[in-house]
Amino acid sequence: MGTLDGKIGIVFGVANKRSIAWAIAQAWHKQGATLAFTYQGERLKENVEELAGTFGSDTLLMPCDVTRDDDIAAVFKTVGAKFGRLHLLLHSVAFAPKDALEGEFVNTTREAYRIAHDISAYSLVALARGAAPLMAEGGSIVAMSYYGAEKVVPHYNVMGVAKASLEAGTRYLAYDLGPKKIRVNCISAGPVNTLAARGISGFSEMLRHYEAHAPLKRNVLPEELGATGVFLASDGAAAITGQVIYVDAGYQIMGM
Ligand code: NAD
Ligand code: 0WE
Predict the structure, then answer these.
(1) What is the pTM (predicted TM-score) of this model?
(2) Which atom of ligand 1 approaches the CA of 15 most closely?
(3) CATH code, domain carrying 123
(4) Burial (CB count <10 Å: 0-12, 13-18, 19+), residue 147
């Protein structure tokens, strides 16, 4: 007996076993959800195949570069053909060109700004629009955000501006899709050691900073993001939409 028995979901953003998307997918699966996965490109296909394969050899797996409208259309066409409906969608995708995360925000190029917003923020709108017609029984859309959306985190730069757009987009989508009983929320996670975090200089210092300053005096665990993902997907969260839920060991409440 799982909280998500009978639910069908799709997961965007698994790159490897450390991905936040994989932690949430595992938690959804444990609660009984049937899941489909997408991967960004051939480079990641094998990884995702191996992980998704642990849920059964007939797990639906599709390529999807979220900057490509035809990829997105093909994904929802295939989900529609295989399942005919959808209840859950996880957006766990972000990218900004490396240079934009190293120098000063004031030097962000038009192109880096465009790319960061296209991949990290606009994609939620495109995916929600593709999913909505399949969510005829209602649904839950969950996206991953970070504190740099609301306060300055040095070097997070254009990603912080893109996450602010993702969070505002979540509220406008929640308004549009609410009448269809589709909820849209963000999980704002504390730092987690993933592929996207690894390349960041000073990342281990950031983990130590959270340990020292967060009320819980520790970092967040991937399985705790999974548990919050299950809650937001479940009927327990039936009246929660348009929100940003902090899963950050309490760091966000601090003023100093
Ligand atoms: P990750 O590298 O495992 O996941 C990022 C994913 O984005 C990858 O699967 C990658 O393939 C995908 N992606 C990038 N460009 C894409 C494109 N054009 N089309 C399709 N997919 C694309 O790293 P992660 O830390 O698990 O990141 C997942 C989400 O969590 C991101 O939104 C990130 O901003 C957010 N987040 C991460 C942390 C952290 O500290 N790791 C904290 C808070 C929020
Ligand atoms: O959202 C993120 C990281 C997203 C990300 C990571 C990369 C690294 C490789 C987006 N684009 C790229 N581009 C690359 O070329 N996080 C919340 C993790 C993160 O990234 C930071 C952080 C934290 C936390 C960057 C600077 C400061 C803090």
Answers:
(1) 0.99
(2) 9
(3) 3.40.50.720
(4) buried
